[in-house]
Amino acid sequence: VDASPDALAALTRRAAEAGVADRVRATQGDADALAGLVEPATVDLVLCHSVLEVVDEPEPVISALVTALRPGGAASVLVAGRAAAVFGRAMNGQLDAAAALAADPHGTTGRRDTLRRRYDAADASALLTAAGLAVEEIHGVRVLADLLPAAVADGQPAALVELERALAARPPYRDLAAQLHLFARRPA
Fold first, then answer.
1. CA nearest 143: which of 161, 125, 118?
2. For residue 41, which of 62, 71, 61 has the smallest C-alpha distance?
3. Is 51 in contact with 25 (CB distance < 8 Å)?
4. 62 and 127 in one domain?
5. Which residues have C-beta within 8 Å of that of residue 103, sequence separation ≥ 6?
6. Count of domains forming the chain
7. Is 25 helix (H, G, I), strand (E, B) or coil?
8. What's the CATH code of the domain at 71?
9. What is the block-wise mean pLDDT of the chain (188 residues), using blocks of 10 residues?
10. Which domain holds residue 24?
């Protein structure tokens, strides 16, 4: 389920290329309408990437996601990380914006912010757990990559990838990531 026809067309094409088109159904719609678009307890895997930070209310989206999952089904949830936004702005000299992000309960800089909220690992995990999911893993995505000067990142790409992999699951480094990836499962 995606609001974008282009994303659904890409999904359909990739599923056909992978030989799994008969196992994939692309449906246009919004995340908060998922419960009305998918039969309850029929979905094996839900990818909820970069959604929770832009919807009006994340709780109904997660509730619909849980309802769609079959028992034992998995959810891959990717959210914007709060700490990375604070550090990134501070390192770029935007101290007022960094302070606003750090102080705001939703991790935003105010009305002009493009995101409605940002998460830390505990808040994102609590959101999923409250809806009935068991969080199995949390990883950081782009732990350092967004904080490094381009010359460093471009000059040592293999070393950067190796370091990112080493830090992705290790707090406190994981918690500095631009995005947090949570893998959760609906109990069987």
1. 161
2. 71
3. no
4. yes
5. none
6. 2
7. coil
8. 3.40.50.150
9. 93 96 90 86 94 94 95 98 95 94 94 94 98 98 92 94 97 96 97
10. 1-32
